[in-house]
Amino acid sequence: MTEKKIFLDNASTTRVADEVVEAMLPYFTEKFGTASSDYGHSFGVEAKEAMDEARATVASALKTSPDGIIFTSGGTESNNLAIKGIAYRYKNKGNHIIVSSIAHSSALDACEALEKEGFQITLAGVDNQGFIKLDELEKAITDKTILVSVDHGNAEIGAIQDLEKIGKICKERDVRFHADAAQSFTRVPIDVDKMHLDLVTISGHKIHGPKGIGALYVRKGVRLHKLIDGGMYERNLRGGTENIPGIVGLGKAVAISEGVADILTPLRDKLINRVLNEIPEVQLTGPPAGPHRLPTIASFVINYVEGESLLLHLDMRGFNVNTGSACSTKKLKASHVLTAIGLPVEISHGSVRLSVGRYNTEEEVDAVVDNLKEVVTRLREMSPLNAEFMKEWEKEKEEMYKRGESPEDHHH
Ligand SMILES: *Cc1c(COP(=O)(O)O)cnc(C)c1O
Question: Helical H runs in 72-173?
């Protein structure tokens, strides 16, 4: 097909920004030094300076100083380093970890691995919009609790947690606090001191930076067990020669992110408003459009259609969207996030997520909604579930007429 593909799956990954590619290129070729050789020659100095600049940029976006930033291979490694790093280091203090029930699979999987080793894991429940139930969280903390880990902005339904409130609870109980900010970083303000954060996960490729680079903020005084041995790199918390081009790219992605949220929010709102207004029997998942929702994500469940078929049909028309999260599309089970907010499994199968990035336009947003409308109508015509519903509805209407009522009183 020669048609241009329209990408509306920016919560899974994003196109690397042109400015980012340009900033990275010299660090593959002329400036190929490593930062740890800065004692010897100018190549090392160049690399060290570039890395220092990126570290300062990332730090300032978290309202902290550069020495708090550890570069990693991405969000998954950062989550593992935060969760396992705390678990192994503080295991003499306690063996209990609380993790959000809607956390990213990398955080949940790290906790599951720890559980097999004897750690106790509690899943923090959320309400029907995806917000952590703070009273329950508070009650779950015991004197054995060493870590609370939550995802700041949820990748599937866009819920933004109140980190300041959760952080306050953790601080009062002397429990370390980790937030996975892979989706929220540079889109939602983060202030590690105000929010009492001890650890923050960042990923490059969710914010128009390269894949395979990320960072973990580690508060001064918070100790971690090292997961990757090999050299005194990154405050001796992560071995391995630094990924200088990736680090430069991440720094650039952060540097050019100012104001992006203000461009993305109207696109998200247009998606949400048009879908809710123009497609019948659709429900928004997560918080309503507003400040408690990621500027990037419009997520829905559409009755009487399968998310998978929607995805396929939209793909044939040149649109990339997602059903739930990228990782769950390969599994046939319902998304853990949609289950956690209390959606019945049958309904969650009709989930679709549209997520915007800096390269999307209003025209693209309009085009995807136009196509989504058509596809939903087509699929519903073919859906046995829908046919059954319509039959039931016809019967119900007949009954109502017999009772002298109008179906309009009942229809929603
Ligand atoms: C993508 C993502 C991750 C994983 O980051 P990678 O850099 O892909 O390893 C972790 N948490 C959240 C919330 C994410 O969206």
Answer: 75-89, 105-116, 134-140, 163-172
The angle subtended at Cα 50 by Cα 241 and Cα 257, nearest 5°, is 110
Whole-number average pLDDT of the chain: 92
Lowest mean pLDDT among 124-128, 272-276, 328-332: 328-332
Residue 327 bears catalytic tag: yes
Which pLDDT score is estimated for 231?
Answer: 83
**Number of residues written out for the chain:** 412
- The helix-helix angle for 75-89 and 105-116 (nearest 10°) equals 30
Q: Which helix (H) or strand (E) holds 7?
A: strand 6-7
Evaluate if pTM is beyond 0.85.
Answer: yes
- Give the pLDDT score at 412: 38
Place of tokens 């136009």: 370
Q: In what order do the strands lie in the sheet with 96-100?
A: 69-72, 214-218, 199-203, 176-180, 145-151, 96-100, 120-124
Q: Residue 406: its pLDDT value, please?
A: 63
What is the Cα Rg of the chain in Å?
23
Neighbour-count burial for 44-68, b at 16+ CB within 10 Å, e otherwise: bebbbebbebbbebbbebbebeeeb
DSSP-H helix ranges across 198-328: 244-255, 260-278, 307-316
Task: Locate all alpha helices (DSSP H) within 35-189, ordered by sequence.
Answer: 42-61, 75-89, 105-116, 134-140, 163-172
Nearest-atom number in ligand 1 for the CA of 12 is: 1
pLDDT beyond 70 at 131: yes
Atom of ligand 1 nearest to the CA of 325: 15
Query: Does 55 have pLDDT greater than 80?
Result: yes
CB-defined site of ligand 1, < 6 Å: 74-76, 79, 104, 106, 151, 155, 180, 182-183, 203, 205-206, 214
Mean pLDDT of 66-89: 98
Question: Between vectors from CA 155 to CA 259 and to CA 69, what angle results, nearest 5°?
Answer: 65
- Angle formed by the axes of helices 260-278 and 362-382, nearest 10°: 30
